[in-house]
């Protein structure tokens, strides 16, 4: 750390400190440490300085000074990202800018169904504020207790509610962004329709802080569903799950709010390793689906819909068995079963992860081809497949062979990734459906995306951040 | 025309002609004429050459030659745009590139619910192809019989179905774009989730052909509604219409597929001037709403929903009177009443038009303030207000005073625009909700948008079209 600290001039550090005040400029190693490592421990960066500005104006002044002095800045929200976008590099010359103190909900507009919120607001806090106003803010994901809205937008977060409500991008009507120069781009609009020039908003969303810093946003709110039903279904095949999805979409339309696919392995591992996990179905199946129906009309309506769908699915032998949660507690237990899958998989040893999407119709083909491709490059490795099937998005994570060695298996990370991603590309899919690019997939993106796309992205980056100080080394 | 033709070197013209073949390179004044004027006659450009390429490869070669020779190119679809984006300038040195011959529907994927379509496909042709495949393509607007999908995307078209299904941007999953250099950016994906780098797709959508030429797109399809009901409602005030919208949204959610506001003047003018228009309600009201409910479940379900909403609205005295169409024919007659409003207004003399949006909650305030602002700058002028209230989007068109003079009134175009747009800006609205910027609003956009936004748009333009040959003089 001593060496790293030297890479920022003490006089410059002092100028940054003066902008936010001594209390909010972290310089001691033990204070800075939590901002340098991310949850999975894949990246560990260095930095002599973490700034915690308390206003948009302070963010603006920080970036103005950064531009003047060509100091690289790494914006950080709740530090829950999975691709290393929020972690500084190891050089020790990058300043971390934490948005945590910009945590005000500026306005809830019940008539326009919008909320104006600062970047540092924790997702769960926003969900609760919406609920208290008798509204739903639908974005929902595993890290919601600590991730922040600014990070959700910068990574275009997905999660379990995308099927009916869209991802972070779809939920955002307007943004406020501090540009690398310190200028503030105020586009905090509540409009559903606005065709006045280029769509700048969507450039900043999903840019992982490489084009500017999102400091606030206008987000959509929705009516709270009046009825919600959760079912757990056992199915003979992934093809049957695809047919069930078609049937459920057709009957429920926008009321189908979740359709999560779970393979037999993650199901079994959860029963084996997750403390307190309750077996959802008495019989065993090759595939399972967690399905949720939310009705804007009534509890009875939701119940009627889900019974109707499951009845038709059982009759058509798409579903082999099914259970509908009989209480709120049971519904939560079923969702909990879905949410602990990644944790339960850990007990089976090292794993190689993927966050892919393909056209929904290609899901069964993807599973078949990817399983074969993995077996070829890593015999005995165990594909653990689950994810947001309704969005075409699977977390296809490979556990090492049952009797294998963690380190030897992880040495194959790149080979296994390449094999799976080759199948993805063959099906015109995406190698990062919802987690983003960050540091993790930057080289692969550049190597495998069409050169025209990479060239256009580089032109955007150069146009918005000509000095290259905005989260350098990420995305592109 | 002779002078104009001289501004392109004959040898260069010949090189362009050779790319598409003699038949598809229009050079005679009478062949070119339909491409130079737009429907309302506000702009009339000059050009010595209209190219009608028959493949993406030909579009690519045209742009390659245009870049080599710095020849400006104006892409054109169905030539129905309302802001002059598709019309060349008067200099005679711009080549018009018509996408009409790129008119194949490449694929309909019923499992993924997508259609891959070329830019020159006419909107209504696509609607019909979707219907024949038992699907809905929801984009719907007055010009649908002649406008083309490429133009719809390039202008991010709106229309009457945005409320439930979104605008053209929301309906698009992937694009194929020929860049100014002739390179092809192939991003024809069917994915709901894809976080691999910057969102380039949304830059091209709504850019009015100033960044590249959209040659094909992947669009979303939806299940055909199983029941549809249309009602016409009379209301005492715009505030009552806002409350009715809240009530209908709450009860119907995504099944509320249209909520169109109609003022008393356009209602009366339609009864006066539109041949065959049938009076929807026996009593007269200050405001009217055309409301549509589409059910994915059944005809009975749609009927039950709309009766439930209207019953509650009448009881709460939000609605004064209401009629539900009793047949498909009656439903079409009510929709027709809405669609002929702009035409009926013409009989009342010259009008000054606006295509604005504000947060939905601000609609009544907008109407009150805009009426007052117009009366101040143009006493006796008659605001004719109607539009897509559910999207916050009104076509607020001012007819000249009843006993006024057309030319004298139109001389006030700018003054009246300024007065109305000042109210829009005060309510954080948009001066172009769905028609775009083109030539019509370019100067005003540049003069009134935040300088930071204009600067960012100029950087995007320079990054994508450094030679400035891509539809110059439009948007920015």
UniProtKB/TrEMBL annotation, chains A, B:
<dbReference type="InterPro" id="IPR016169">
    <property type="entry name" value="FAD-bd_PCMH_sub2"/>
</dbReference>
<keyword id="KW-0274">FAD</keyword>
<dbReference type="InterPro" id="IPR004113">
    <property type="entry name" value="FAD-bd_oxidored_4_C"/>
</dbReference>
<dbReference type="InterPro" id="IPR016167">
    <property type="entry name" value="FAD-bd_PCMH_sub1"/>
</dbReference>
<keyword id="KW-0285">Flavoprotein</keyword>
<dbReference type="Pfam" id="PF02913">
    <property type="entry name" value="FAD-oxidase_C"/>
</dbReference>
<dbReference type="InterPro" id="IPR016164">
    <property type="entry name" value="FAD-linked_Oxase-like_C"/>
</dbReference>
<dbReference type="InterPro" id="IPR051264">
    <property type="entry name" value="FAD-oxidored/transferase_4"/>
</dbReference>
<dbReference type="InterPro" id="IPR036318">
    <property type="entry name" value="FAD-bd_PCMH-like_sf"/>
</dbReference>
<dbReference type="InterPro" id="IPR006094">
    <property type="entry name" value="Oxid_FAD_bind_N"/>
</dbReference>
<dbReference type="InterPro" id="IPR016166">
    <property type="entry name" value="FAD-bd_PCMH"/>
</dbReference>
<feature type="domain" description="FAD-binding PCMH-type">
    <location>
        <begin position="43"/>
        <end position="224"/>
    </location>
</feature>
<comment type="similarity">
    <text>Belongs to the FAD-binding oxidoreductase/transferase type 4 family.</text>
</comment>
<protein>
    <submittedName>
        <fullName>FAD/FMN-containing dehydrogenase</fullName>
    </submittedName>
</protein>
<dbReference type="InterPro" id="IPR016171">
    <property type="entry name" value="Vanillyl_alc_oxidase_C-sub2"/>
</dbReference>
<dbReference type="Pfam" id="PF01565">
    <property type="entry name" value="FAD_binding_4"/>
</dbReference>
């Amino acid at each position: 750390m001593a060496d790293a600290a030297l890479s920022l001039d003490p006089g410059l550090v002092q100028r940054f400190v003066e902008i936010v005040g001594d209390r909010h400029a972290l310089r001691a190693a033990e204070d800075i440490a939590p901002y340098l490592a991310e949850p999975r421990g894949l990246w560990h960066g260095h930095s002599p300085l973490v700034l915690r500005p308390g206003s948009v104006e302070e963010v603006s002044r920080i970036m103005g000074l950064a531009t003047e002095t060509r100091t690289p800045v790494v914006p950080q929200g709740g530090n829950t990202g999975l691709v290393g976008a929020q972690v500084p590099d190891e050089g020790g010359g990058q300043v971390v800018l934490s948005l945590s103190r910009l945590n005000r909900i500026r306005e809830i507009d019940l008539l326009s169904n919008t909320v104006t919120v600062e970047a540092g607001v924790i997702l769960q806090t926003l969900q609760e504020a919406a609920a208290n106003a008798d509204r739903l803010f639908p974005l929902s994901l595993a890290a919601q207790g600590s991730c922040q809205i600014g990070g959700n937008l910068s990574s275009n977060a997905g999660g379990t509610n995308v099927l009916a409500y869209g991802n972070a991008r779809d939920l955002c009507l307007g943004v406020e962004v501090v540009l690398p120069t310190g200028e503030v781009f105020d586009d905090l609009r509540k409009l559903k329709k606005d065709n006045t020039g280029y769509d700048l908003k969507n450039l900043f969303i999903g840019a992982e802080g490489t084009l500017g810093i999102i400091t606030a946003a206008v987000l959509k709110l929705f009516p709270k569903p009046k009825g919600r039903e959760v079912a757990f279904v056992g199915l003979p095949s992934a093809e049957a799950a695809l047919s069930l999805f078609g049937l459920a979409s057709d009957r429920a339309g926008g009321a189908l709010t979740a359709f999560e696919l779970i393979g037999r392995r993650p199901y079994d591992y959860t029963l084996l390793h997750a403390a307190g996990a309750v077996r959802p179905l008495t019989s065993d199946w090759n595939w399972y689906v967690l399905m949720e129906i939310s009705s804007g009309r009534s509890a009875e309506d939701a119940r009627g819909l889900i019974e109707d769908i499951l009845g038709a699915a059982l009759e058509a032998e798409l579903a082999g068995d099914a259970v509908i949660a009989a209480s709120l507690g049971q519904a939560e237990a079923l969702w909990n079963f879905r949410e602990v899958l990644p944790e339960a998989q850990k007990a089976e040893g090292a794993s190689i992860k993927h966050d892919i999407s393909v056209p929904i119709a290609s899901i069964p083909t993807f599973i078949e081809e990817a399983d074969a491709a993995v077996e070829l490059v890593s015999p005995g490795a165990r594909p653990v497949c689950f994810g947001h099937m309704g969005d075409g998005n699977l977390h296809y994570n490979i556990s090492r062979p049952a009797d294998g060695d963690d380190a030897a298996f992880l040495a194959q990370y790149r080979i296994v990734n390449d094999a799976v991603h080759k199948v993805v590309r063959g099906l015109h899919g995406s190698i990062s459906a919802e987690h983003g690019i960050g540091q993790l997939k930057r080289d692969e993106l550049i190597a495998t995306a069409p050169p025209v796309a990479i060239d256009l992205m580089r032109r955007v980056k150069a146009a918005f951040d000509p000095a290259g100080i905005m989260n350098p080394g990420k995305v592109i």
